[in-house]
Amino acid sequence: MTNAYRIARRIGIDAGHRIRLHGSKCRNLHGHRYTIEAVCEAEHLAHDGEQAGMVLDFSFLKDEMMGEIDAPCDHGFIAEIADSECLAMFAPGGVSVENFIHALRESVEKDGFAATTKTTLGTKLYVIGAPPTAENLARHWFERLAPRIAERSEGRARLAKVVVWETPNCAAEWPAT
Ligand SMILES: Nc1nc2c(c(=O)[nH]1)N=C([C@H](O)[C@H](O)COP(=O)(O)OP(=O)(O)OP(=O)(O)O)CN2
């Protein structure tokens, strides 16, 4: 086993979602206080400069988590692109539901997600390509954050995993370690 330093940082967001095909209560529109943890590791600490002695400055890690997760999702609604009944509720006046969902689908196919506030009531909407379970969100946010961590640490650190707690008792992580 290779020795490495590991750091972890958590943020919390509030967001709504539903699990479209769930057989029970999670089909309902509901919300969670999500806790998201990002774990980063490096074989070597920075030798000099403002990050000397660090894998990655905790504040840099927070900046990236806030940009990729908090800004588009906090106090928003996280939906699956296949959940057209749910997405239809967010279509703003003057735009057909078909066109609204088509534009979201194009973004999801191109970028892996769609984020918009051009919705009914200006509600923050974040759309991904899979059901918004803790497992899929952990993988999605891992894929969003990983390149940011590499860049912010000038290649020294890598994202090891993302853990998403949906409730204080239930968590999923990607990748399994
Ligand atoms: N493996 C998964 N199972 C479930 C997920 C998930 O993302 N991954 N999500 C849900 C629902 O979203 C639900 O809101 C959470 O389910 P549950 O644990 O049953 O909710 P509780 O309110 O009972 O949780 P407590 O921690 O006991 O308050 C369902 N399953």
Automatic annotation (TrEMBL):
Pathway: Purine metabolism; 7-cyano-7-deazaguanine biosynthesis. Keywords: Lyase, Metal-binding, Zinc. It is an enzyme of class 4 (lyase). Its EC number is 4.1.2.50. It catalyses: 7,8-dihydroneopterin 3'-triphosphate + H2O = 6-carboxy-5,6,7,8-tetrahydropterin + triphosphate + acetaldehyde + 2 H(+). SUPFAM superfamilies: Tetrahydrobiopterin biosynthesis enzymes-like (SSF55620). It comes from the Bacteria. Its cofactor is Zn(2+). GO terms for molecular function: 6-carboxytetrahydropterin synthase activity; metal ion binding. Catalyzes the conversion of 7,8-dihydroneopterin triphosphate (H2NTP) to 6-carboxy-5,6,7,8-tetrahydropterin (CPH4) and acetaldehyde. Belongs to the PTPS family. QueD subfamily. This is 6-carboxy-5,6,7,8-tetrahydropterin synthase. It comes from Notoacmeibacter marinus.
